[in-house]
Structures are given as C-alpha cells and as structure tokens.
Amino acid sequence: MSSILFSLPELYMSYKNWVSQNPLVAGDFESTVKWLSYFIAGRINTSNVLSELVYSLSNLLVLFNDRIIHSSRRLGVVGSGDKLKTWLTVLDYSEVFIEVSARRLWGEKGKWFIVVILQIFKCAGRLLLLFHHKENIIQNPPMPPLQRKKVGEDTQTEEAHFRLNSASFTLKRSGRVIRSVSAAPPANCRTWKPLQPPNNNAEDDVPDHVLTEKLLLAEVLYVIKPVVHLCSMMFFGQKNWKPWLLALSVDLTSLQLYKNRQSGQALSRRQRLELSRRSVGLLLYLLRSPFYEHHTCDRLQNLLHSLSNNLPLARVVCNPIAQYIPQWQDTYFYMWST
Q: Is pLDDT larger for residue 311 or for residue 256?
C-alpha cells in the first residue's frame, strides 16, 4: 500500500506532462467520456443521475486539464478572480447533477431548496467578480474551455518567432529583417524572398472594454435574472406566464442596453462573442415552460414524426429524440440556469 501511495505523485506528474505535451489527444479522450454520458441515458434505472454524473465529470476533467495546460505553457496572466471563477465553473458544470440527485433523494422540495442555494451563491459570486475583481462581461462558464487547437497554433507561432530571431537580425535605421549568413539554407532551396514574421491576430490582443454605468447595469440585470425568476416563481407558480415574461424582459433589456452603447465604446472580440451567445440563447425560451407546453411541444413532436415517416433512416434518430424530449425539457430548459 505504501508503495502505491508513494507512486501517486509520480503518476500525477507523468499525467501532467502528458496532458501539457498532448492537448489535442487529451481533448479526444475528454470527448469520449462526454459521449459515454449520452450512451448511458435511458439504459438503466438510475440513468438520469448516472449520465449527469459522467457528463459533469467529463466537464470537470476538461477544466482540470485546461488548468494543467495553462500553468505548464504560461498562457496569459493569472487574474485576481481566477480562483473564484474556477469555483463558479465547477458549480456550473455540476449543478444539474446536484439538482437531479437532490430530487431523487429529497423530492421536489429538496430539489428547489438546493436550486435556491446554488443560484444565490452563483449570483453573489458573479457580482463579486463584477464589482470587486472588475470583470468585464462575465462569460458562461466563467472559466471557458481552452481552444486546444489555438494553443497548438500559438506554440508554433512562438517557435517560428524563435527561429526567426535566431536566424536573422534587424537593421537599426530601416528596421528591415536580414537573414544571417550562418542560418541561410542551401542555394538550391533558397526562395530569395525577404523574411516575414509570423502573423498574429491583433484582434485577439484587444483588451476588454471597461463597462460604463449603463453597461454595468446591463451586466447586473443578466447576473441577477435567475434569482429574480425564482422569486417570481415562488409568488406566481412554476407554470405561470409572468415569471417567463419577466425573465425574457430582463434578458432583452440587458441586451438592448449593450446594443445602445455609444459608438466609441468598442467591445473586444471576447465580449462580442459572449453577447452573441446570449442573443442566440434567447431561442431557448421556445423550449421553456409554459411556452413549451402551449406552443412548442405539439409542433416539435409533429415535426419529428413527419421526418421519421418521410425520410429514410430518420426514424433511428427522430424516434429516440421524440421520446426523450420531455425529460430533457424538464431537466435542462429551466429558466434559472444562465
């Protein structure tokens, strides 16, 4: 037993080295684990809880590996709120599993108690990021996954810069890059073209725009929306239209405030992508109660049945989707999740 415990640090260091050197392969393994959760769904009695557990663990594995890659390759500067972002991301990845488990253990009342606790904690943490750590537009999740392919491209760019610096020198007056004689390739392989530094995407280097009072109000509305919706559900009921309309109004108001910003307040690429994601997320209101029960449910079921009856092999895909849509709607398309 002592030998096994002694080897655990060595195994962990080996795993860290493997992940940092093979980020794309690690990403393929993470995707395999995530697809396993889809395969489990509906095949055993506790499939809902088990599939959510596997799915949550796959996302947490992605976060863990991303932190390894980030620290080993020194990608960016560690911010003051990164620890809080990490905990909020862990909560985002595991909250559905926690809610499903609470429903199975303690029923609907226990589930709603856990939901309220989780959303209050998430709201307080995001407000702390916004006001104390001066975060400009909080992403969802707060610690987004690394783009493994882009990490590899950045590494290649750094290597190209290193090769360029070692194989050339820059003239002081003109700034022209000249290849050194010792680094010149053979005569039959020379292109006789001037050296060109690797291209960098300058747009990615634009810092985040500091939120003005109007934009700060827009972000606060987005952050407190889940808690506002939960409070309205306590007063009007889960299937009432008022909570649905209130949440939609808060989302639309927040996006409109961002849209009406002054022309000089240019947002960074990261901020624009997050606002685009929120705009697309408005489509989820079609799948949320009570709009889903009154309008979307029948139309969606009829569409799936029509596809399965008229398209070859479509029944293999459409029938399972039609069967699981009510469960997915009840589990995922709730208004309090941001």
A: 256
Mean pLDDT of the chain: 80
Long-range contacts of 128-136 (CB under 8 A, 24+ apart): 128/81, 128/84, 129/81, 129/84, 129/85, 129/88, 130/216, 130/219, 130/220, 130/223, 132/81, 133/79, 133/80, 133/81, 133/84, 134/210, 135/81, 136/208, 136/209, 136/210, 136/211, 136/271
Question: Considering only CA atoms, which of 199, 181, 198 is closest in space to residue 190?
Answer: 181
Q: What is the DSSP letter of 283?
A: G
pLDDT confidence of residue 192: 55
Is 70 exceeded by the pLDDT of residue 206? Answer: no
Whole-angstrom Cα distance, residue 197 to residue 157? 9
- Interval 191-201: pLDDT, tens: 556 555 555 55
